[in-house]
Structure formats: structure tokens, C-alpha cells
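For the sake of clarity, the format in which proteins appear in this thesis is described at this point. The record quoted next illustrates the convention:

___
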Amino acid sequence: MGQTRATLIVYIIQMNPIYKLIEIIVLIVLPLLVFYLRSGWSQKEINVNVIILPILWYLTYALLHELSHIFGCIVVGAAITDYRLMPHFWEGDFGFAYVNVNGGFEVNTRSLIILSFPYLLDVLSVFIGFLLLNKLRIKNSFLFGLIFMILCLRPLYDIIDNYIGIIMLDGDLVLISKIIGQLITYSFGIVAIVFIVTMNLILLNKYKKYPYPLLENKNK
């Protein structure tokens, strides 16, 4: 009975658009807005990008996460029985996507690899995004924001969103903790979040008033 009630509460929270909206505003929209407001781009560019980019993010975040699970299934040769690559928001479902495998997720290496792939991708994405935004001189505000959002902000949302799942006893990290233990799993989550936040803060500081400093240096 208690298990059923907990599952119902988790499902209600996942289906609640307000819960997801708050997450999106705090972890995607606000960092993106801060990034643009500190930049040297025009207000018109900022307004357009802050509206369009979060929409593009919403259409891709679950897709990339679930495709990572599918890639993990391919690596270990697991048979996929069912999947949903993005939430069915047109049905009122704003946060539920999944990949189911034959036999379910058991306490073994196969399940660990499948469940871990999205978070390994998250850390790698931030590393690649950080290198790209440090090396490339992108003067297009939309392209710059797209790279920052997909490679740097998306992983932050992905890990924190699943870390919240720990509180609700639901999600990938809970299943991973049953395989390698809670200490290792939750420590990895904390380290990953600190790493991603640090990389994003460095980028925010480095590209203050961007791209004006680059243009000034080029004219010297």
C-alpha cells in the first residue's frame, strides 16, 4: 500500500506542469537570461533568443537523454521492449519519457551501463561545450546561446532533475545506487553538479559583454 501511494505521488509530480516549469525557469531560462543580460548583444536579440532557445531545449532534452539510454542498450546488446523519447505534452504529460528493456533493470553491469550513459554524456557535453566556447569566436548570438544551452545548461538540468528523483525514490540514480551503492552514486551526482556549475560560471565570467571585447581586440 505504501509503495503504491509513493508511486502515485511520484507520478502526480511528474505529470504536474508547474513542477517542471519551475525547474525549467531556474535551471535553463534564468541562466540563459543572465548570460545574455551580461553580454553586448542587442535587447532585441536577447528577447528573441530567450524565448526560442528554451523551446528548442524542451523539444530535445528528453530526446537526447533517452537516446543515450538506447545507445547504452546497443553497447550491451539489450533488447528494447518499449520507449518514449519525449513527454507527450499534448496529452498533459510534461515530464515523462522512458526506455524499457527486456528483463527490466537488474543489479548487474548491463543495467549500470544503460542507466549511466546519459550522465556520462552530460559530463562530456559540458567539457566539449566549455572547450568550444573558449576556442571559437562565435559572434552570432543565437548560435552562441544554442551551444551554451545544449552542451552546458542541458546537462545541469538533466543531473539535477534526476537528483531530485532521489527524494521521490524514483529515477535513474536510484536504480544505479542499487547496483553500485548510494555513496558512490550520490557522490558522483554532487561532483558532477559542482563541475557543471563551475564550468558555467567560468564561461559567464569570461564572456561578460561578449562579443564586444573580441571585436575591440580584433580592431587593435
